[in-house]
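Sanity check

After download, print the first record. It should look like this:
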Amino acid sequence: MRSGRKRGYVSGNIREHGGGLDAAAKRFGGHRADWIDLSTGINPRPYPVPRLSPDSWTALPDKRAQERLIEAARHFWNVPPDAALLAVPGASAAIAQIPRLASPGRVSIAQPTYNEHGASFAAHGWTEVPESEQAEAAVIVHPNNPDGRTFDASALTAPLMIVDESFCDVMPSASLMPHATRPGLLILKSFGKFWGLAGLRLGFVVGDPALIARLADMLGPWPVSGPALEIGTTALRDTAWAEATHQRLRADAARLDQLAKKAGLQLAGGTDLFRLYETPDAALWQERL
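Expected structure tokens:
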């Protein structure tokens, strides 16, 4: 059971995600401000948005602003020099396009996990096969949502290999970024989870330069907004905030575990941004929460 509404699972033909506060308020009452959202892995104390220049709103994003963001991202994630890096309007925008980078075939996706990967590959004619089978493409969410499962380099076996590290910024030492130069590998990074700025719609794709170049062509010349360029650059350079946030999230997760244990829940996995608990009646707990 996730601590709240399930994120990224399929219900019938509708893909459900967290963050549906308006729907929850409509069903149970109250307003958005009355609710504590436990349904996503988004940092509830986001990075403080800096004052923005007027040009960020009125001018097309210039090349130098894009270069500053890329430089900050390379430094923060220790991106290997030979790996390419592309800023995108949220990791989901890249997820929607990546299956177009190869001819449709078989794709293995480590389950259970965020459902947009499977939906995107299916929409582009791919056939999903079990994780244990060899396939032309493979997806691992590292660490995985919802169970926190992690992977190592031995999992990087498919010709087109997608590693979704949207939640890996709470455990940077586990990142597979040192392998970003592997041909056919793409690593996804999200700005909405650790920094808590999901509405900014900023993400990154790191890896094979040839694939990154094709993905850039698909997204066009100005995929990231001026405000996102400025905020992202400032936040990625703020290593003091990142370190303090690591410590706070670690303490908050431990406190949540204590509360859950007292309530009769058993920890089954997760990260410092989300937790998975076991209970004999998950549906009842979801309703109560």
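If your output differs, re-run the checksum step. Summary of this record's structure: Residues 54 and 227 are 9 Å apart (CA to CA).
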